[in-house]
Amino acid sequence: MNREKCNGRGLCAEACHEGAIRIIDGKAKLRRVITLSINGKILAD
Questions:
Q1: Does the predicted TM-score (pTM) go above 0.85?
Q2: Can you list the pairs that 20-29 forms with residues at least 24 positions away whose Cβ atoms lie under 8 Å?
Q3: 22 partner at 20 to 30 Å CA-CA among 3, 9, 11, 38?
Q4: What stretches of the chain show up as alpha helix (H) in DSSP?
């Protein structure tokens, strides 16, 4: 992801299944994603 080339349409955010990309101030930004799991069961993300 190149923020300088970002046009802010949000296609990358829509395509990201993990929800790790947000559009902030018209530019794509990675958000910090933390996943907690025990024995493969996701408890929180």
A1: no
A2: 27/3, 28/1, 28/3, 29/3
A3: 38
A4: 11-15
Query: Angle at CA 31, nearest 5°, toward 45 and 34?
Result: 25
Main-chain phi, psi angles of 12, to 5 degrees = -70, -40
Residues in contact with 21: Cβ distance below 8 Å, sequence separation at least 6, in sequence order = 1, 12, 13, 28, 29, 30, 31
Cβ count within 10 A of residue 28: 21
pLDDT confidence bin for 42, thresholds 50/70/90: low
Give me the residue label for tokens 């493969």: 40
